[in-house]
Amino acid sequence: MAKIKTVYDYIRSNNIKTILLVICFPLIFIALVFLFSWIVVPVNQAWETTLSVAIPTFIACGVWLLISWAFGDSMMLHSAHAHEIFDTDPENREIFRAVENVAIAAGLPRPRVYIIDDDSMNAFATGRSPRDASVALTRGIIKKLDKLELQGVIAHEMAHIGNRDIRLDMMLITGVGVTVFAADIILRMALIGGNNDNDNRGNGAAVLLMVWLAFMVFNWIITPLLRMAVSRNREYAADATGAQITHNPMALANALRKITTDSRVECLDKVKSMATVCIANPSGPREFISSLMATHPPVEKRIERLESMAS
After folding, report:
1. Could you read off the pLDDT of 228-250 as tens digits, one per residue?
2. Has this prediction a pTM greater than 0.70?
3. What span, in angstroms and rounded, lies between the C-alpha atoms of 33 and 266?
4. Known catalytic residues?
5. Are 269 and 80 spatial neighbours (Cβ–Cβ below 8 Å)?
6. What is the pLDDT of residues 103-149, one digit of tens each?
7. Residue 156 contacts by C-beta under 8 Å, 6 or more apart in sequence?
């Protein structure tokens, strides 16, 4: 008889997959730069080129990551036009208490609570650690979900906080931003070098063009696939952990059914990177090709897993 998977099995499996994907991120980048350089120069020179490109890129990522670490949560909340609420606000006291109660059940410090003035249904969590975390909820999700469903959503976000998923988000988003900037610089250098008649400079321009091509493949093909896989695994883990916190998988399953009917948050339409941290895609329904690269697994599969836990 096959063993029935428990909440802990789902969490353990997803965390292992996430670690493996994070390890693949820099290794694939280095491999792409090396292979594309090798097309136009000997192997020794290709390896030297790879090191000369990879090392400063990783240093730049580290510097920008420190900046994101200090201000990333504030930037995300500002992008969502979120404003903080307190237990002293009569109209928001109930939702504030709901977040506080779920935090206690999760064994985590109470996060700061923010409201997004949008009638759609969505939510996200941000912060460097559980001690300085924040949970943001739209007005629509507060109004349209019942008490148990809303607790399920809050528990899902508390799971992201407890699992330190936001740290991973910042790393991936930062890495992409730096590599896109680096690719632009390399292309400009290649074009300048290509305008020179000197053979050595022309050869160098060819190498730079291949390095630029490696960056583009990494940025627009490999990175979206890695982000998609990491985010999907994280969502499954957060669903499982949220169900564990509330002891009510069906409440979160029912909430997801409602949320996916109206998850678009207008102020996030131009902030595509925020899709990875929201409980559902904040840009609304996507066409077929876009859905293949979606940061969230199909809601049907998420609901199916939650229902299997309930049974």
Report:
1. 777 777 888 899 999 999 999 99
2. yes
3. 38
4. 157
5. no
6. 999 999 999 999 999 999 999 999 888 898 999 999 999 999 999 99
7. 123, 238, 239, 241, 242, 252, 279
